[in-house]
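Researcher: Next entry: Membrane protein (Chryseobacterium taiwanense).
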Amino acid sequence: MIDLFKTKIGRLRIIAILEGISLLTLVFIAVPMKYGFDNPAFVKMMGPIHGSLFLLFLFNTLSVGIEQNWKFKETTWKVLLACFIPFGTFYIDKKILSKL
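Model: Predicted structure:
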C-alpha cells in the first residue's frame, strides 16, 4: 500500500478507491437516510467529501492520462466514466489501473 503513494498511477488508484467508497456511501446510506428517515445530516456531510474526491479523481485521471500518453478513445474515457457508476472505480482499478 505504501508503494502506491510513490507514483501518480498509485495515487490515482487510491483516489479511485476513496471516490468509489464515498459514492457508495452517498448512494446506499446517505440518500436513503435523507428520503426514508427524513434525516439529511449525512448527505450534508458526505456530499462535499464526495464532490471533492470526484474532482480530485477527474483531475488526476487527466493528469495521468497526459503523462502516460493514454489514448483518450482507448483508456482515458473508460477511467473517467467509472466515477459516474457505482462500483465503477473498483472495476477500473482491477481491470486497467492495477496493470499499469
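Model: Note for the record: The first helix runs from residue 8 to 36.
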